[in-house]
Amino acid sequence: MKRRDFAAAIAASPLAWAQSRTGPAPTPGAAPTSPVAIARCPDYGSALTPALRTLMDQLGGLSRLVRGKTVALKVNLTGAGNQRLGHSPLEHTHWTHPAVIGSLIRLMADAGARRIRILESPWQTANTVEEVMLEAGWEPRHLLNAASHASTRIEMENTNYLGQGKSYHKFTTPNGGLMFPAYYLNHSYADCDVFVSIAKLKEHATAGITMSLKNCFGITPCTIYGDGAGVDEPSPVPKGGRGAVCHGGQRQPSRIAPGELHPGSPRQGGYRVPRIVADLCAARPIHLALIDGIYSMTGGEGPWNRGVGLIKPGVLIAGANPATTDAVGAALMGFDPMASRGTAPFETCDNTLEFAEQHGIGTRDLSRIEVIGVPIAEARTPYRKARG
Amino acid sequence: MDDPKRLIPMRWPAAWSEPSRLAALEGEPINCLLFDDPAACAAVRQAALRKGFAVEQPASVQRITEGIWPGLARQSGRGTVAAPTGPPWLDSNGWRIRLAQTLAPGKPVWIDAAVPSDLIPMLGPQHLALAVADAAAYGAIWVFQPWPSFDLASTACRTLFDTLKFFEAHADWRGFLPWARLGIVSSFQGDSEFLSGEVLNLASRRGLAYRALLPAGLKPGALAGLRALLLLDEAPPPAPDLAAIHAFVQSGGLVIAPSGVAQLLPAGTVLHNTPPGYRARGVGKGRVAEPVEPWSDPYEVAGSVHALLSRRNDYAAIFNAQSMTPFVQQSPDGRRTLIHLPNYALRSNPGALPSVRLPAAARKVRWYVAPLEESRELPLVATEGFHEVQLPDAPVYSALSVE
Questions:
Q1: Pairwise CA distance, residues B72 & A48, whole Å
Q2: Contact B353 A86 (CB under 8 A)
Q3: Does residue B3 fall inside a structural domain?
C-alpha cells in the first residue's frame, strides 16, 4: 500500500487512523506494515518543529488523528532526574528532549487536540511529573504552555501509582499474552482517545534496544509491579523498581493483577522484559510512535550502564505503527531488526520486535516497510561503531 | 558564634605520656587538648599549659555533641547500605550540628566521633579530611581522637592539619546563614525526638533548604524568607506562635502540620493534586496541608514535604551528587551564596562528575577544594534561563562561592 492509498483510507477516528496505518489484520507470518518517516534534524533548535511537521504530514497529517481528542503522550524520563552522563543534560542522552515533546504538543494543538496529557512513571516516586522535570533542571511550564492557543488543555500525570484515578484499569493482553494475561495500569492509559509513545533512540542493557515499544515498559505502575508493591493490594506509593516482578520474576505483582502465565519460564530479564513489552503494546495499542534520535547515547539506556557514550545521530523517526517504526530505528542504529537472540544487539536477550510481530502489532521486516523521507542508508549511525 | 579564643580540640590518648609528642602540634591549628584522665598524662598536661594550649576534661565541656563517623553508611561485612531510593545512605553530622545550633544559639559545637576501630587499618588521609569537613561545613569542629598507634607525623595527620587550616582560613564562612525556604518546627525532644531528628537528617540528605526552629520562636523575623513551615509536633504551638503561623499562611506561606494542629488554622478551599497521603486547603493566599494518617516514616515525610514545597524552591539543581549532601548558605549581606559539597564516597567518578544548575542571576563562581589553599573561578555555561557550572574532580570536599 502506498502513501496516497493510506491518505484515501484514513477515516475520522484515531482507531481507524491507526488501523489504516497498520494495514490489514494479522495473519500468520504476515504482521501488518505501515510507513515510517525519517527526517534529518541536527539539533533541538529552529529546525526541529518544521522537521516534525513534515514527518507528521508525510504520515497523513495530525488533524485526522487528534482533532477534538484527548491525547496521551508517554514520554521517556527513565532513571533519577539528578543523574547525568558526565555533564550532559539528561535530554541530550537518555530522556526524550523537552523540545521534541513541546513541538509535538504545539503541532497537535494546532491540529485541534482538545486535551494533551504528558504521562510518565518516574523512578520510585509519587511526585508529580512536573517535580521530576524540575529535578532535572527542566521548566515544566514550557510544556504546559506549549500550545499556541488556550483551547487545548495540557496536563501531566505520574502513572507510577493510582494517581488521580479512582481505580486501576485492566488491559487484557490479546492472544492470551506472553507473560501476563492482563495488566493493571493507571487510568490515564484508558482515559485517552489517542496514545503516543515518544521515545529515545537507544540501546538497552536488558532488551538490546529501546524505542517506542520498550518505552511502554514504564507504563506499569510500581505500586503493583514494583519491588515494594503490596502482596494483595497495590501499595499507596511506588517503592523500588520493576526488578523483582518484571525483570527477574522473583515475585508476582499485587494480587489485584493476574500473575504470570508460565511460572516455570526463565527468571531472566532478557527473556521476560521483551515479552512483557510486547504484551503491553498489544494490550494498550500505540497510535503514533515518535523517536527522538537527534542526540542520544550509546551502550545502554542510561548513565548507570557501563561503557556508555554520547552520540548525535541527528534524526527524528515517526510512524503510526510502533513495530515498524522501531524496526527502522534499529536499522538506523546499525542493527538488523530481524536478528535473533545471540546476535547484536540481542546478545543476551530475545528480540522484542519478534514478539510484537507475533502479537500482530507490526512487521519488523524492512523489505515490507515503506520508508518516507531520508533513506535508511543515508541516515544510519551505527551505535556499536561509535562506541569503538 | 566563635569562641572569644577559638579552640580547636584534640583528645589526647592516655597512652601518650611523653611530653615530646607535643612538638608535632606546634604551628598547627590544634590549640586545645582534652584529657580524659589528667592524672595519667600529668607531665604532658603541664607541658601543654606551658606551651599555651588550652587544657580541658571532656566531661566538663558542654559544647561537645555526640556525633557519628561520617561517610557512606556501612554494615559490618556487608558493604555500604542503600537507601529506599537506591542511592547510598550517608552518615553525616550536618543535621546534628544544625540542631545543636538551634537549641543553643551562638554556642560553638564540637562533634565527638571516634574513628571506627575496623576502619583504622585502612584509614587514609581522605577519611580524616572528610571528618573535619563534615563538621566545618556546618560551622562546627570535629574533635580529633588519635589512637595510641597513630603517627602525628604521618601523611594522614598532615592532611588533617591542612584541612583544619583550610577552614580556619575561611573563618568568614562561619558567619554565613543557612539559605532556607522551609522552617522545620519542633521541640526536637520527648515524643518528637526521633521523628524530628530523622526528618532533619533526611531533609539534609535531599538538599532541602531548611532551618530548624523551636515552636516558641516563631516571631515574624524568624520566618523571613521562608515559603513553608513543617510543624512536626502533635502538640500545638503556644498561642502567639500560632498567630504567627496564621499570618504566615494568610500571606502566602505553606503550612504542613499534623491534623490536630492544622485544624486550629482556618478552614479553606479544598485543593487537589496533593502528594498521596495528604489533603490540603487554600487559606488566604497560602495553603495548609495535613497528612491523612499520622506521620510514621521520616523518609516519606521528608519526600512529601519536598514535593509540597516544590523543587522550584531549591537554590540549585545538582547533578551526579548522590554521595554528597549539598548545604547552601548565604552571606549576611546576601551577596554571596556558598554551596558546600562534602563527598562521602571519598572518591569521584570521572564519568559522572557533578554539575550545578544555578539561578540566572549568578554572575561569578569560585571553586574551593579542601585542603588546597588555591581557589579558582569556574566558567558559567549559559542554558535556558539558568547558568550551569561543571565541576572538576573533588573526592572529599569542595565548595562553590556564587556571586
A1: 44
A2: yes
A3: no
